[in-house]
Specification:
This protein is an alpha/beta fold and 463 residues long. The chain folds into 2 domains: 3-242 and 445-462, Rossmann fold (3-Layer(aba) Sandwich); 244-444, Rossmann fold (3-Layer(aba) Sandwich). It has 15 helices and 17 strands. Strands 3-6-7-5-1-8-9-10-11 form a 9-stranded mixed beta sheet, with helices on both faces. The protein has a 6-stranded parallel beta sheet with strand order 14-13-12-15-16-17, with helices on both faces. The protein has a two-stranded antiparallel ribbon with strand order 2-4. Helix 7 links the parallel strand 10 (214-217) and strand 11 (234-237). Helix 1 (54-68) crosses helix 15 (446-462), helix 8 (252-261) crosses helix 11 (350-359) and helix 9 (284-293) packs across helix 13. It is globular.
Length: 463
Amino acid sequence: MSAEQQLDICVNTQTPLLLFPPVTGSEGVPSRPPESARLEQLEEGVDYTFSPGGVTRMVYPLIRRLHEDQLIGQAHWVSLNPFGPREVRTPAFTLHNVAIAPERLAAYGNVKETIWGTVHGLRRDAPESADLFWSDDFSEYAYYNRLTAEKIRALDATYDFDVFYIHDFQQLAIGDMLGTLKPKLYRWHIPFAAKEIPPAWRSAMTAYLNSYDAVVVSTDRYQAQLEEFGYTGRIVKLYPFVDETEYTMPPADEVAATCARFGVRPEDRLVVVVGRMDPMKGQDRPIRALAKLAGAHPDVRLLLVGNGSFSGSKAGLGLSKAAQWRAELERLAVELGIGDRVLFSGHVSQRDLDACYERAEFTLLSSIQEGFGLVVVESWIHGKPAIVSKRAGVAELVKHRKNALLYDPEDVEALADQMALLLADPRGLGQRLAEGGAVAMRKCTIEAAARAESLLLEEVVNG
């Protein structure tokens, strides 16, 4: 594609690509972040870290790839980032950080958590759920969306974008607030379960959704439910994806040293669960299942990898449930008599995560509900078999006993049975599942995503 044909794009996510530590002055008063910075002048791990989570993990490589492929020219990415510089320039795109006052973050966070919990089936009967769109807190959610929309409109006045790409439920109202006829794409990343959405929400949500020219979802099931919900635009199913080149296979000595830091012994048979510390991730299920297997398999240990999300971090929104949930899991393991066999790594670097995958005998996605579940794809990249919750979107790719094992996250006995199968036959069943996973993984690569996203962008822009 020639320079004249390249698309100028504005991308919007709540979670920023980069997290910056809060900066305080000599008297402990928060100081204003710098107005601008260049990424190559900053040091990872000192000046910033990459945000955890699938959204930024997908958006970042996609923008880079589309820029390399010359589909997009100017690319700008707007996010909520209380402590970041107003602007961070990179060779492929420019990051723009929006901040809202700390006293407004709590109310915004309440709305965000209510929407998230309700869609996941946790809070549909709560009084605040039914009245959400008329609540005082919702005004702060609308304020954040409006502030972001105004930032995007100001950028559009300078860069004259060809298309806007808005990501996830926190940004739902932005398409309507942009007030433009230019093409607008929206990607819904969490489960779309129409039956979980209160009737009182439907008119507002339908109006917001219908402000977008196309909505991208992750599975056939979400596509069907979005149609039933009343969205009248174009619906596109695109699997979430990873850039497999970002994953490494550390040597055995590094793997051993890394896992030893987390308490893994050389003789252990290791089961790995990767996910933020959140009840929705269901880490209590594998703990209970391991307790049922403990006598027959005294050498099996469970490693829980992960901490909080951007919303829960001190550099994010400060809404953390991670510490409370980890403490509850630790208590549960002790109560079940396996306190020494359940290990917690906390947040890890990508290199350490790769080492954990390499050390695993198999991995486990235990989520009660999950929009997709890219950790299964990561497991397949590392050639590891996986046990997958039926309520995760990625289950659509799973052929039971062909490329993974499926189970109902409410059935701990079934999970224990699936774990026992893999522990009993790692070279037979385990190897077959790993080989099948390597095939399924190809549907979730950056190459597959770049082709599909390029076609979608071109079609939306060209009508």
